[in-house]
Amino acid sequence: MKKVKLNNGVEMPVLGYGVYQIPDYDECKKSVLAALEAGYRSIDTAQAYQNEKAVGDAIKESGIPREEIFVTTKLWISDYGYEKAKKAFSASMERLQLDYLDLYLLHQPFNDIYGSWKAMEELNNEGKIRAIGVSNFFPDRLVDLICYNEIPPALNQIETNPFYQREKAHKVMKEYNVQHESWAPFAEGKSDFFSNQVLSKIGEKYNKSVAQVSLRWMLQRDIVVIPKSVTPSRIKENIDVFDFQLSPEDMENIQKLDTHKSKFFDHRDPEKVKWMAGLVR
């Protein structure tokens, strides 16, 4: 598996397995084991996904040496703040059954970001976390965090797919040496993603699926990807993207699909921010 070097020297696989929306313990554990058997060595979970225990059990049962697996989890906004963040981290580590974490992310750009980041910096300096980063941060919030803190985020995980390509955010991350990571690389199937004519036509050229074309497109943009599936055949399919290369023409045609709009929600929408705050109170 090809790896990317983060801004602190830590290496992570360019393609991992995400477990969002797999809250069922048995299904999640089975899926993570299938992913590890297929060759994945990066697993992305979160406190809010309610499946850290299943991920931890799968890693333990797999028998794969701990140092070979890159594990990411995230701090949820209800536990933002210096003291609460440290307690939440300890709880996540207990569920994951790990001695150290590879990557810890602020899940949302709301609430007490700075108190939480201070706690994460200390955990990083203590060797309990190898790298710290953020998720869903727009460029202005990302640069603000960088300017006023000791440790810059190693990675920013944001919604990215052919329909929402995040060119501006990508450029800023490149400038500040923050790794771009995609969530929802398939737009969760919205807007008939899997039957899109442009992606389908390109896939036919390489005998690849629409999903594989999307993943390959992001890898060629230097974006880390974490596709999710609970179907064993698709789990295997999603990692089979290193034996072909999209042409400049393919890349240009996919670029034309950009709508510049989220398929889910806008983190800058005041109503969305208010809704998120309601999840804490």
TrEMBL record:
The record marks K74 as: Lowers pKa of active site Tyr. The active site is at Y49 (proton donor). The keyword Oxidoreductase applies. GO terms for molecular function: oxidoreductase activity, acting on the CH-OH group of donors, NAD or NADP as acceptor. Residues 18-258 form the NADP-dependent oxidoreductase domain. InterPro entries: AKR, Aldo/ket_reductase_CS, NAD(P)_OxRdtase_dom_sf, NADP_OxRdtase_dom. Keywords: NADP, Oxidoreductase. Substrate binds at H107. Belongs to the aldo/keto reductase family. This is 2,5-diketo-D-gluconic acid reductase. It comes from Christiangramia fulva. The lineage of its organism: Bacteria, Pseudomonadati, Bacteroidota, Flavobacteriia, Flavobacteriales.
